[in-house]
Amino acid sequence: MRTRLAVVAALLLSAHAASARQKPGVPEVDRVRLAEAFRVGRALGERLWKGWDEPPFAVLLVTPEHEFLVRHPRPSEDFTPLGHDPLLRSEVYFRKRSFAPNLLATFPAVGGVPTIVIGRAENTQKKTSTPWVAAVLHERFHQLQYSQPGYYADVNALNLSRGDETGMWMLNYAFPYSAPDVQRQFGVMSRLLAEALRAGNGKELSARAAAYLDARRRFREMLAPDDYRYFSFQVWQEGVARYAEYRAAELAARSYRPSREFRSLKDYKPFKAVADGMSKEIMTELETLRLGDYRRVAFYPLGAGEALLLDRLNPKWKGRYFAEKFYVERYFGAGH
Q1: What does pLDDT average to over the chain?
Q2: Contacts (Cβ under 8 Å, ≥6 apart) of 78
Q3: Alpha-carbon distance 39 to 69, whole Å?
Q4: Are 307 and 297 in contact (CB under 8 A)?
Q5: Across the chain, where does the E strand assignment appear?
Q6: Structural contact between residues 76 and 109, judged by C-beta atoms closer than 8 angstroms
Q7: pLDDT band at 13 (very low <50, low <70, confident <90, very high)
């Protein structure tokens, strides 16, 4: 009898061990990266933007084999629990991979909750840990956008979907990227924005900003109303998210000390290096990008540049951002 019980116990222990081995875990380097993104957000988010902490900071980490759901309030039934992760301060769930491992986006991917869906740093365009953390904060800003009362109704009221109920119109809208006059004026406009950002304070700044806003008005006059609404929506949504990513890295460089675990990663670089690189990239893109080549992505540096200019001309502009959606030019003041 004792022998039989011992055999049964051994079999149960073996089955439990096998089950434990079959359950995947979040790769350790990704645990550290995610924990750092949460830590930066917790330390600096409300200084970056009021309301930062309010929406769920839900993340779906996509690895080649599995997807790991973290800090999500309503996991769907296709996820299996892995238990509480003290480093991530969250219950963790997993399922077989369904999204592309290089994805970097935010949408209601799980349970109708805006969720950051992101591949491992090595598999995304960010490549290394610190830019990847900054990208998570970019996507966090999208969660803040999507959580605003009336956001989806206001987007629908733009009447740009043309029957597309999937949301893909945001990427595929037929904007006149190839029109020669539109390309030419966009180039003039973006270069004038760069000049305004490089200007000193006082009269020089006012003159450069006025020249930019005048070129922007001429650009608007070239576009059909639908095309301008699309441009304006992208500048508001993606451009300002790019600005938030840059400002998060810049703020972290000035007033945040990364954790020892994060600083120990082989590909770690200081936030200052990331912020400086982003600032240089925004300026270079404004001065050199071609609308026909960049297409929708051209609106990212333009929106980021406008937000940076607003910081100098109207430091209270953020208070209008969610109340007056989609038209960044209005935050510059009367007549714009």
Answers
A1: 93
A2: 95
A3: 17
A4: no
A5: 59-62, 66-70, 80-85, 90-96, 104-110, 113-119
A6: no
A7: very low
Q: What was the pLDDT predicted at 101?
A: 97
Give one DSSP letter per residue of 69-86, joined into a string.
Answer: EES-SS--TT-EEEEEET
Let me know: does 31 contact 85? Beta carbons within 8 Å. yes
Distance of CA 9 to the CA centre of its chain: 50
- The two beta strands, 80-85 and 66-70, are unpaired
- 95 three-class SS: strand
Q: Which residues contact 70 (CB under 8 A, 6 or more apart)?
A: 26, 34, 58, 59, 60, 61, 85, 88, 90, 92
C-alpha distances in Å from residue 261, one per residue of 30, 118, 124, 130, 233: 11, 21, 22, 13, 39
pLDDT in tens, 24-44: 999 999 999 999 999 999 999
Bridge-based pairing of strands 113-119 and 104-110 is antiparallel
Tell me the β-bridge partners of 105.
117
* Count of beta carbons in the 10 Å neighbourhood of residue 105: 14
Residue 252: pLDDT above 90? yes
